[in-house]
UniProtKB/TrEMBL annotation, chain B:
It comes from Prauserella marina. Pathway: Alkaloid degradation; nicotine degradation. InterPro entries: 2Fe-2S-bd (IPR002888), 2Fe-2S-bd_dom_sf (IPR036884), 2Fe-2S_ferredoxin-like_sf (IPR036010), 2Fe-2S_ferredoxin-type (IPR001041), Beta-grasp_dom_sf (IPR012675), Diverse_Oxidoreductases (IPR051452). Keywords: 2Fe-2S, Iron, Iron-sulfur, Metal-binding, Oxidoreductase. It comes from the Bacteria. Residues 151-167 have a biased composition (Basic and acidic residues). Pfam families: Fer2 (PF00111), Fer2_2 (PF01799). This is Carbon-monoxide dehydrogenase small subunit.
Length: 813, 180
């Protein structure tokens, strides 16, 4: 790799993206206005499960400004269109058709039933009230175990079951480890725990929005999406449209967090209505629509069994999951819990492992990717049960982890779930985190508070985590039956004036790719940071890509940029040699200049770009262009890791939890931009902590989402969160040329168990062994008192069971 | 109803439906799309603008209520190519990621600093409680607001936005100047 005098990679560059975002010169999809544009409003089912007897749209059609009202049967008379699911996790996975608008039955509250087309958004919205839908109620299926119970009503009668799929991994069968049943039967200590991952709402700040222009040469769709390239191909496949006649643009996108990895019924609807009416159409959802209609995340019941020796060596882990899919399958929904299969064993050397996940249909909003997707669930499960095991064995919880984790000398290490971790140093991150946290000091204070029966108790929570980033080697995705590869594309255009356009298939929505990619290319080509423009999110300029999710952009897309840069340099070298009348082998490339070895004769790459543009005098057979592209398929995942430590103060009289301090030391490999990395950590922590303390999508017994607005769903504000202490250690990834790993999800994955472990740690003397999430003051108070009621006994009951949630009856009740 | 509002220094007269929210008037009629809508329950604060020198959630004000008023949006803060110190501080401190909450967050921060020129961390967090951000975890936003306070003379916000201690009221004026 070439380098400028001071490498750009590693520099704390402020972001290029900010200029327009801080001045309001933004291009959100909803800002778009086109000549003759009409607006869509979707009527949504208020029932969670019902047969549609009749839909009367006649009155709505007469309303002022209304051009048309369509039902599912109007848009798709043959019932042929089904929203795509790209991840059939097993050959026998049950896959019900998800129509664009409900046809025959509605299966969750929030499902679209009809769409109004009107001259203004307000007129479209007004007319919704005049659509008369006659429903015949069907029994509502809520809660994972309820849905699987004998004789349970069915979400989809025609499937004959609410069971979507059963996916298993067994180390004994795979040959990657021993037989877990044997490990359990021979174990000195066996511990079983049930944990619950509540349902969450991704809650990106920009509501989803779609504009379709059928008057352009290509059918052009702007969408607030994370996945413009996937959306283009999937739109073609879903509607049978010729793919080359579709252009998709993701302009400025206001956050995603997995919530915008989807192909929406509303996107397909907009394509259909635009073609039917011949007019540009726009659909922008209200926040209340987002809450019920956009996919949710998490929602699992986790049954874990861990086997260990008395002295704290883990000998086996068995994981049995129930995962709520909601009423239909999202784009990658069925695969989300399966990603956890590779992460429950985490950073530990576990000799025998079994994972089984049953995906279940219920009459709820569908679930799909949400920041971390499968890995936060796994990390929560293992980190919680490690603390429980430590308590059971009377071993200090960090000590227990040290006894079991992969030491830094042991890398590369192939885990019991068959992944090969290329690098890491758990000791280094942990030591640094414990120092910054003053672990010993806080343990001392904890003892003191316990001794003096302080009503405010101190708890210390640990989460030592790893994750798999950089989704993904295509062959691995193939082995998991995923419906696409995991490569990424990049191209570099060397402009005649020496400026550079970088094209990336990654599709940023807040991550800062424009800045980071500029830094990478600046180092690679020796071109000033300011002279580089990064283009993305439009299938015209960025023709190829697999988009942004799973912390893949840098570790896959960023490497594609490196590979494309290398091709530019190789092309330029031939021309430079010709220009300077020397052999290619005599040239050295550094800091943007080709220098004849041992001389001071040099040519800048910008001069070579101009020579290529002029093309008056190029070597024989060399094309007049330095432009290059590359498609990079990673050879392995990358494995960021870190140690997160959380101290909570709990008022045992009120159940209030205060985060006293939060320290994390993360190893995300080489860092391109420390400012951006730190920002990703902060945001990730906030979301993970919010799962632990605040957020939950709650349904009532009729299947209505009762936390269906921002007034009811507790997104933390600035006043609810503390400042975090974030730091890093750096073990470069050995499987990509930049040594990078990925950082987008780390904070979310690691922080949730750190907080809950801290709460349980504070309350262990009260007999508390779990507090269900979110750990509201009421739940915490209840957990304390349940422990007391059990007269200092084991406190086997969770602190949950309040409100509308009862873990014993399953997930979203 | 016919209303006249001055937005970022330009006067506009329009007929509006009485039910039209100020934010919709700004976005849909006046093309002021820098101000955005993030929710429908007045929780997120993404639509925050200044109305006669006070921050308001423009989804909670009817356009007709703004008749005769001066409104400053995120688009009107920079003057002569010079960013407002709070805008500059948001950039300098990486206080935004996707940027959707940013217009409201910046407008609310200016209001906060007008009331309290030297807020401590707690005061900033409390002062921004009505504005939600999903990307940053707020840490850099808090840092940016305090940094902006340091960079501005005491009372940095536009002079007229400050609460008059004696009367406890603020005077209306054009607001949002570039760091006077």
């Amino acid at each position: 790799m070439t380098a400028t005098a001071e490498p750009e990679v590693g520099k704390a560059r402020l972001r290029k993206e900010d200029a327009r975002l801080i001045t309001g010169r933004t291009r959100w999809t909803d800002n778009m206005s086109l000549p003759g544009m009409v607006h869509l409003a979707v009527l949504r089912s208020t029932m969670a499960h019902a047969r549609i007897v009749n839909i009367d749209t006649s009155a709505a059609k007469e309303k002022p400004g209304v051009l048309a009202v369509y039902t599912g049967d109007d848009l798709d008379p043959g019932g042929a269109i089904g929203m795509p699911c790209a991840w059939p996790i097993t050959p026998d996975m049950k896959s019900p058709r998800r129509p664009v608008l409900a046809q025959g039955t509605v299966n969750f509250a929030g499902e679209g039933v009809a769409v109004v087309v009107a001259r203004s958004a307000a007129e479209a919205e007004d007319a919704l009230a005049d659509i008369d839908v006659d429903y015949e109620e069907l029994p509502v299926v809520l809660g994972l175990e309820n849905a699987l119970a004998e004789g349970a009503p069915l979400v989809h009668e025609e499937l004959g079951t609410n069971r979507n799929a059963l996916w298993k991994f067994d180390s004994g069968e795979a040959g990657s480890g021993g037989d877990v049943e044997e490990a359990i039967s021979q174990a000195e200590v066996v511990l079983k725990r049930r944990f619950r991952q509540q349902r969450l709402v991704p809650a990106f700040m920009e509501p989803r929005s779609v504009v379709v222009d059928p008057t352009a040469a290509q059918l052009t769709m702007w969408s607030s999406t994370q996945v413009p390239h996937i959306l283009k191909t999937m739109s073609a496949l879903t509607l049978g449209l010729p793919e080359h006649k579709i252009r998709v643009i993701a302009p400025d996108v206001g956050g995603g967090f997995g919530g915008k990895i989807a192909v929406l019924p509303e996107e397909i609807m907009a394509l259909l209505v635009a073609q039917k009416t011949g007019k540009p159409v726009k659909w922008t959802e209200s926040r209340s629509e987002t809450m019920t209609a956009a996919h949710h995340g998490r929602d699992q019941i986790q049954d874990l069994t861990i086997a260990a020796t008395r002295d704290g060596r883990v000998t086996g882990l068995k994981v049995e999951l129930l995962a709520d899919m909601g009423a239909y399958l999202g784009l990658v929904g069925p695969g989300v819990p399966i990603l956890g299969a590779f992460m429950f064993n985490a950073i530990y050397k576990i000799p025998a492992y079994h994972f089984a996940c049953t995906n279940v249909f219920t009459n709820t909003t569908l679930t799909d990717a949400y920041r971390g997707a499968g890995r936060p669930e796994a990390t929560f499960g293992i980190e919680r049960i490690m603390d429980e095991l430590a308590a059971e064995l009377g071993i200090e919880p960090m000590e227990l982890r040290r006894k079991n984790w992969i030491t830094h000398e042991e890398f590369p290490y192939t885990t019991v779930s068959t992944l090969t971790y290329d690098s890491g140093n758990y000791e280094a991150a942990t030591d640094k985190a414990m120092r910054l946290f003053d672990y010993e000091g806080l343990r001392r204070e904890q003892r003191e508070r316990r001794e003096r029966n302080d009503p405010v108790q101190l708890g210390i929570g640990i989460s030592t985590f790893t994750e798999m980033c950089g989704l993904a080697p295509s062959r691995v995705l193939g082995s998991l039956d995923y419906g696409a590869g995991g490569w990424e594309h990049a191209a570099i255009r060397m402009l005649p004036t020496g400026k550079v356009e970088v094209i990336t298939g990654s599709s940023a929505h807040g991550q800062g790719h424009e800045t980071a990619w500029s830094q990478i290319v600046s180092d690679q080509l020796g071109i000033p940071f300011e002279d580089i423009e990064v283009l993305h999110g439009d299938t015209h300029s960025s023709p190829k890509g697999l988009d942004t999710y799973g912390s893949r952009s840098l570790a896959v897309g960023g490497i594609a940029v490196v590979k494309a840069s290398e091709k530019v340099v190789a092309k330029a070298k031939k021309i430079a040699a010709h220009m300077m009348e020397c052999a290619e082998d005599d040239l050295e490339f550094a800091e943007g200049k080709f220098t004849v070895a041992g001389t001071d004769r040099s040519t800048a790459i910008q001069e070579v770009a101009f020579a290529a543009f002029m093309a008056h005098d190029l070597p024989e057979g060399v094309e007049p262009s330095l432009d290059s592209e590359a498609v990079y398929d990673p050879e392995n995942f990358s494995f960021p890791h870190g140690t997160h430590l959380c101290a909570t103060e709990i008022d045992t009289e009120t159940g209030r939890v205060r985060l006293r301090s939060y320290v994390c030391v993360d190893d995300v490999g080489k860092v391109v931009n420390p400012v951006i990395v730190e920002g990703q950590m902060h945001g990730g922590l906030a979301q993970g902590i919010a799962q632990a303390l605040f957020e939950e999508a709650v349904f009532d017994e009729g299947g209505t989402l009762t936390s269906g607005t921002f007034a009811d769903y507790l997104l933390p504000s600035a006043a609810d969160l503390p400042s975090f202490t974030t730091d890093r250690t750096e073990t470069p990834s050995t499987t990509n040329p930049l040594g990078v790993k990925g950082v987008g999800e780390a904070g979310t994955i690691a922080s949730t168990p750190a907080v809950i472990n801290a709460i349980v740690d504070a309350l262990r003397p009260y007999g508390v062994t779990d507090v269900e999430m979110p750990a509201t003051p009421m739940r915490v108070w209840r957990a304390i008192h349940t422990g007391e009621t059990a007269a200092g006994g084991p406190g086997a009951e969770a602190g949950g069971g309040l409100g509308s949630i009862d873990a014993n009856r399953g997930g979203a009740q | 109803m016919r209303i006249t509002v001055t937005v970022d220094g330009t006067s506009y007269t329009d007929d509006v439906e009485p039910r039209t929210l100020l934010v919709h008037h700004l976005r849909e009629r006046l093309g002021k799309v820098g101000t955005v809508v993030g929710c429908d329950t007045s929780n997120c604060g993404a639509c925050t603008v200044h109305l006669d020198g006070h921050s308001v959630k423009s989804c909670s004000v009817l356009a007709v209520q703004a008749d005769g008023s001066e409104i400053t949006t995120i688009e009107g803060l920079a003057r002569d190519g010079q960013l407002h110190p709070v805008q500059q501080a948001f950039h300098d401190n990486h206080a935004l990621q996707c940027g959707f909450c940013t217009p409201g967050m910046i407008m609310q921060s200016i209001d906060l600093l007008a009331d309290n020129p030297e807020p401590d961390e707690h005061a900033v967090r409390e002062g921004l409680e009505g504005n939600l951000c999903r990307c940053t975890g707020y840490q850099n936003i808090v840092k940016a607001v305090r940094d902006a306070a340091d960079h501005m003379r005491p009372g940095a916000g536009p002079e007229a936005e400050r609460v008059d201690e004696a009367t406890g009221s603020r005077t209306a004026s054009s607001v949002g100047g570039g760091g006077e």
